[in-house]
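Backbone-to-sequence.
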């Protein structure tokens, strides 16, 4: 290859690099939406195929119905949760502050009737409240970080709603043109890797994504539905049960996250004097909601991926830091895909190393 050909090849590489950088700059704001749409479409593709067959092969209508389901199950609950946090957190925290600053707070009536330990609890409560307004100010100061956290959470969810809307728009085209996109991606991966992994990585990626999504978000949806049913049985209003169920869905990726919801509801029932419903909420949370987390999630994840729960939490937390609230959906699948590809590469045997011996003469 002469000097002129080297210059032409270098110029081509420079042009390609510039084009790739330009494409990245253009698409960079939409990367979370694109990845989210990919995760949703990959994990729900079998449902899309069944729906398309039921509609006589009408791909456009099937794609629209799938996007409608995504809006109904994910985007609308996220919007309602964000608006509820923004509207109600400040008022609730301020009301609690006023209540705490009143000085000594009388213990609830049910505390005195607690078997065996009622008098001890009352003495401990009065000792704690003996500080009067000082204790109230201390507890009020502790509420301020909680208020800021919940408000920031609402803002993060609100900012991610636009990405979810873009994801719904992008997802329609992924559903409609899915076969062509998969074939193009398959050809590109085949040329790039040249069979070096010994297996089709797209099959492994599909199994991994579906396993993680079904395990994490399938169990999260089941927990949310179970929590909502329990709250409705306990007499919570339909709107309140829906919002509490939505919060249970999003907190399910955090260890002991759902217990913050049903535990808080049970405490509220206790203070209201509804002891039976408080006990029911605790039992429902332990034996129904937590059972889904302890048994259903590991089973679903193990069917398509061996991603540990620690990596699930790291993926969700890192996804939130990197992409905002939408990262809770795309963080674990991205991490699972990376680990799967590393496992495929490292599982391939290396060619034997030939060691030549040389005789050294002294």
């Amino acid at each position: 290859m002469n000097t002129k050909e080297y210059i032409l090849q270098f110029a081509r590489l420079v042009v390609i690099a510039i084009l790739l950088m330009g494409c990245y700059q253009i698409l960079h704001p939409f990367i979370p939406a694109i990845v989210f749409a990919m995760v949703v479409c990959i994990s729900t593709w079998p449902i899309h195929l069944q729906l398309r067959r039921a509609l006589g092969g009408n791909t456009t209508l099937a794609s629209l119905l799938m996007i409608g389901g995504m809006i109904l199950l994910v985007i609308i609950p996220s919007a309602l949760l964000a608006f509820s946090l923004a509207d109600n957190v400040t008022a609730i925290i301020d009301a609690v502050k006023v209540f705490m600053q009143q000085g000594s707070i009388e213990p609830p009536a049910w505390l005195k009737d607690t078997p065996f330990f009622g008098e001890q609890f009352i003495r401990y409560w009065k000792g704690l409240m003996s500080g009067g307004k000082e204790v109230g100010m201390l507890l009020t100061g502790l509420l301020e970080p909680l208020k800021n956290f919940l408000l920031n959470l609402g803002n993060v969810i609100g900012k991610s709603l636009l990405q979810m809307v873009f994801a719904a728009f992008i997802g329609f085209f992924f559903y409609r043109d899915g076969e062509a996109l998969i074939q193009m991606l398959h050809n590109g991966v085949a040329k790039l890797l040249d069979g070096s992994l010994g297996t089709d990585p797209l099959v492994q990626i599909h199994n991994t994504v579906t396993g993680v999504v079904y395990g994490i978000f399938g169990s999260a949806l089941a927990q949310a539905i179970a929590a909502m049913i329990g709250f409705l049985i306990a007499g919570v209003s339909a709107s309140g049960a829906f919002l509490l169920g939505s919060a249970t869905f999003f907190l399910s990726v955090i260890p002991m996250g759902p217990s913050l919801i049903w535990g808080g509801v049970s405490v509220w029932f206790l203070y209201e004097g509804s002891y039976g419903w408080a006990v029911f909420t605790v039992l429902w949370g332990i034996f129904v909601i937590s059972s889904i987390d302890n048994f259903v999630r590991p089973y679903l994840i193990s069917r398509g991926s061996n991603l540990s729960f620690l990596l699930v939490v790291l993926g969700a937390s890192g996804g939130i830091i990197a992409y905002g609230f939408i990262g809770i959906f795309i963080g674990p699948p991205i991490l699972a895909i990376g680990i799967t590809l590393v496992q495929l590469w490292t599982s391939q045997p290396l060619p034997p190393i030939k060691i030549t011996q040389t005789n050294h003469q002294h």
